Amino acid sequence: xxxxxxxxxxxxxxxxxxxxxxxxxxxxxxxxxxxxxxxxxxxxxxxxxxxxxxxxxxxxxxxxxxxxxxxxxxxxxxxxxxxxxxxxxxxxxxxxxxxxxxxxxxxxxxxxxxxxxxxxxxxxxxxxxxxxxxxxxxxxxxxxxxxxxxxxxxxxxxxxxxxxxxxxxxxxxxxxxxxxxxxxxxxxxxxxxxxxxxxxxxxxxxxxxxxxxxxxxxxxxxxxxxxxxxxxxxxxxxxxxxxxxxxxxxxxxxxxxxxxxxxxxxxxxxxxxxxxxxxxxxxxxxxxxxxxxxxxxxxxxxxxxxxxxxxxxxxxxxxxxxxxxxxxxxxxxxxxxxxxxxxxxxxxxxxxxxxxxxxxxxxxxxxxxx
Length: 370
Ligand code: PEP
Ligand code: MN
Hints:
Blueprint: H1 15-18, E1 23-27, H2 34-47, E2 52-54, H3 75-85, E3 88-92, H4 96-105, E4 109-112, H5 114-117, H6 120-129, E5 136-140, H7 147-158, E6 165-169, H8 187-195, E7 201-203, H9 205-209, H10 215-224, E8 229-233, H11 251-260, H12 272-311, H13 319-336, H14 340-369
Parallel strand pairs: 1-2, 1-8, 2-3, 3-4, 4-5, 5-6, 6-7, 7-8
Helix pairs in contact: 2-3, 2-11, 4-6, 6-7, 8-12, 12-14, 13-14
The structure holds phosphoenolpyruvate and manganese (II) ion.
Phosphoenolpyruvate binds at residues 29, 56, 60, 113-115, 140, 170, 207.
């Protein structure tokens, strides 16, 4: 049920917009015990840099039989943490029943997870359960890089809740191995900012990184792009965490990370054309970065092929294979509307480099045997 003017729900004059950057949401991936919840919230509050306390109650796990969260029984612990520390409690809701339980407990903020945002039916059901409330809702990006789906979810929620609605960038699942658990694809949140400049944007470096060591860089990047807030998982003893152990950091480590952030003063751009140009340039930077990663992946495969060919005493150059490659790639390119001559040149360079890299690898194999 869509009613009223959704853009009215993204009021930029909301108190969140006036707080100092970054607004920080921190806490464990999952609530594990009353002691863990209260102890973590207390340590985070003592650091003085955190405003929201997060903990997952209903955990969407990829495989069954992993820890699926403590559910409703842990709700009072989050409310107790809020009452004793002053940090605002927030948790993930994935169904209307979760919303009802959270509302009954008196919680004032929730987030919608990436696995839920992919389903307009699920988002609509949650949005309707939030009807008429003034909860703050953070909407994570969907698992895959579909900007429209993310925007649609924000609109569905905004048309129901009277509270602040924020975007929460947690990266996108990508095919193949990558240094990130979820590829940041910064061009997507940048495009969201261009399309919905009134929506405060949070970044979740924990689920992007998947490992504690990338958190600082990802958080810094989010600050450089002018995002309003961060959500970072923090656990008193990360190695013992029941979910997402590798990416969690202690409240002390989180405090150091936040202290080291260089937070640029957000410049106010009054010139629409300049703002569009900046946004497009940032998207180009991110796409180029991904292009380089893909080229690197391709050369790694070429190296493996080089070693395999050497072991089997096959020749490096296979003319028939190369002809097939050129033909299929040029067909794809013409379907995409890419210029034929431009792509022919790129393919020729890529091929030349692949053969060189394969040759290098074969030489290495040879010298190992010598
Ligand atoms: C989480 O925040 O713990 C979580 C499950 O996140 P996501 O929906 O981004 O995977
Ligand atoms: Mn998690």
